[in-house]
């Protein structure tokens, strides 16, 4: 029986709605069609309707899948993004396509005003971008793309060209964004962490005075169901934070540890997030491998990754919860305590190969326990605690399951020897991605598609899990037996 027949013949698992895909094509072909439809010639949009520009961490995940279709396109994806890098090293979270109408997405280039507001931070003059960032998955993606076709990579000088840009990106984060002084990177806007509407941000955002409702027009509600999207109140707070950051010239903390007025408190939002920092650590390990491939020692980068791992455990690990938590650096408490919400972000550090064994084991227990219920009530990992009063199975990052976090946790489980769980999660990502029409995210109980369909990273990461060997994403990072 071929792959398509197996999928259509398999009965729906308990609690999961499953619509068999149309006959005549395979999941591989359908995923490839999504990536082809979203390709613009130099990069891939997450969604033609909802997200019509290039997004930073989307492009990194998309490149990981594209490497199975065209290593050249995967390399081009990352190269295009990195050409929009600012002189201070930051990689902006959006690179705007000038051919897209201004009203197709908000906030657009006329809001961010990167060339003027960001001139002191070195924003590029030839392309318009946002001024905030997203999680640093890029070095890991670059290494995996290189491995897909090392001959092509060497012939084009791919690693030679992207390595200094990736090194500058990490340097920016480590020098300018250690706002807590403990070695970890902070985000200054919920959009930077990538899980935009997580309940983890409710308490920090409550201190922010929202922008007036009539001062902006949301384009997302034109293409997405309002009940699945952030509320107008939350969106007003996002706009206020972005406006204040823009008006401060996108300035961050300085390398000597002193911060400007915005980063030191007037901005109102600074959070150390476990997933953001875990992805930086994974990419530091990958950058060490890239350096060694280019004939440069990677020892210092590995040592930095180990220091960051130790800082992550020291500052964000909650042994009673059995997972990592976010730390609000602007909390009105003397010790700036950990935020109480349980998010999938607190599970992502499972990706790290040198995580202490007791920590990794506790993360697996939490992942399969009642708060996330992987393998029991859910086949994909919900984005938030099932037992939380804030949980919503459909609303953006407040409960639905996302395919990029599934991809990361599949590799985390595999890295730490949980092969059966990893195999089941791998199968769930591939199967439910295809069954949902490559949805942006899905109801973790029923598998119902939410948000956009034909979503870029969903197709790319399902494609990657369909083709990649049963091993962690960077085999050299596997901890010793």
From TrEMBL:
Q: Which residues form the Mannosylglycerate hydrolase MGH1-like glycoside hydrolase domain?
A: 51-458
Residue ranges, annotated region (Disordered): 1-27
Q: Name one Pfam family in it.
A: MGH1-like_GH
Q: Could you name the domain of life of the organism this protein comes from? A: Bacteria
Q: Give UniProt keywords alphabetically.
A: Glycosidase, Hydrolase
Q: Which family does it belong to?
A: Belongs to the glycosyl hydrolase 63 family.
Task: From the Swiss-Prot or TrEMBL record, give the protein name.
Answer: Mannosylglycerate hydrolase MGH1-like glycoside hydrolase domain-containing protein
Species whose genome carries this gene = Streptomyces pyxinicus
Q: What is the lineage of its organism?
A: Bacteria, Bacillati, Actinomycetota, Actinomycetes, Kitasatosporales
């Amino acid at each position: 029986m071929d792959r398509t027949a197996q999928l259509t013949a398999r009965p729906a698992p308990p609690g999961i709605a499953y619509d068999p895909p149309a006959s005549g094509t395979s999941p591989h072909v359908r995923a490839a069609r999504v990536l082809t439809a979203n390709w613009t010639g130099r990069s891939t949009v997450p969604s033609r309707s909802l997200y019509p520009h290039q997004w930073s961490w989307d492009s990194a995940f998309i490149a990981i899948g594209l490497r199975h279709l065209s290593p050249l396109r995967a390399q081009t994806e990352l190269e295009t993004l990195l050409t929009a890098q600012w002189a201070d090293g930051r990689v902006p979270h959006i690179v705007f396509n000038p051919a897209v109408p201004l009203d197709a997405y908000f906030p657009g280039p006329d809001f961010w005003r990167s060339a003027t507001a960001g001139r002191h931070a070195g924003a590029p003059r030839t392309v318009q971008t946002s001024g905030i960032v997203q999680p640093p998955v890029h070095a890991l993606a670059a290494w995996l793309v290189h491995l897909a076709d090392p001959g092509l990579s060497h012939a084009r000088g791919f690693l030679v060209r992207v390595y200094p840009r990736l090194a500058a990106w990490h340097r920016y984060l480590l020098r300018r964004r250690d706002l807590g002084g403990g070695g970890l990177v902070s985000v200054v806007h919920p959009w930077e962490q990538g899980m935009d509407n997580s309940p983890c941000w409710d308490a920090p955002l409550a201190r922010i005075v929202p922008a007036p409702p009539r001062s902006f027009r949301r384009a997302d509600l034109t293409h997405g169901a309002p009940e699945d999207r952030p509320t107008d109140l939350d969106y007003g707070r996002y706009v206020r934070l972005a406006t204040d950051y823009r008006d401060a010239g996108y300035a961050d903390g300085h390398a000597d540890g002193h911060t400007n007025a915005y980063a030191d408190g007037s901005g109102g939002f600074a959070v150390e997030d476990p997933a953001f920092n875990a992805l930086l650590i994974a990419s530091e390990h990958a950058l060490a491998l890239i350096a060694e491939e280019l004939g440069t020692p990677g020892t210092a980068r590995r040592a930095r990754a180990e220091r960051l791992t130790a800082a992550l455990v020291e500052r964000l690990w909650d042994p009673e919860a059995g997972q990592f938590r976010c730390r609000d650096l602007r909390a009105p408490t003397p010790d700036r305590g950990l935020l109480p919400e349980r998010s999938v972000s607190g599970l992502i550090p499972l990706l790290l190969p040198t995580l202490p064994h007791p920590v990794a084991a506790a993360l697996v227990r939490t992942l399969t326990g009642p708060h996330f219920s992987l393998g029991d009530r859910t086949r994909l990992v919900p984005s938030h605690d099932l037992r939380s009063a804030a949980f919503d199975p459909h609303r953006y990052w407040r409960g639905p399951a996302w395919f990029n976090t599934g991809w990361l946790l599949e590799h985390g489980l595999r890295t730490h020897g949980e092969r059966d769980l990893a195999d089941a999660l791998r199968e769930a990502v591939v199967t439910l991605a295809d069954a949902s029409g490559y949805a942006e995210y899905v109801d973790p109980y029923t598998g119902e598609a939410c948000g956009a369909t034909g979503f870029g990273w969903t197709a790319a990461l399902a494609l990657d899990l369909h083709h990649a060997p049963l091993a962690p994403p960077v085999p050299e990072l596997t901890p010793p037996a």
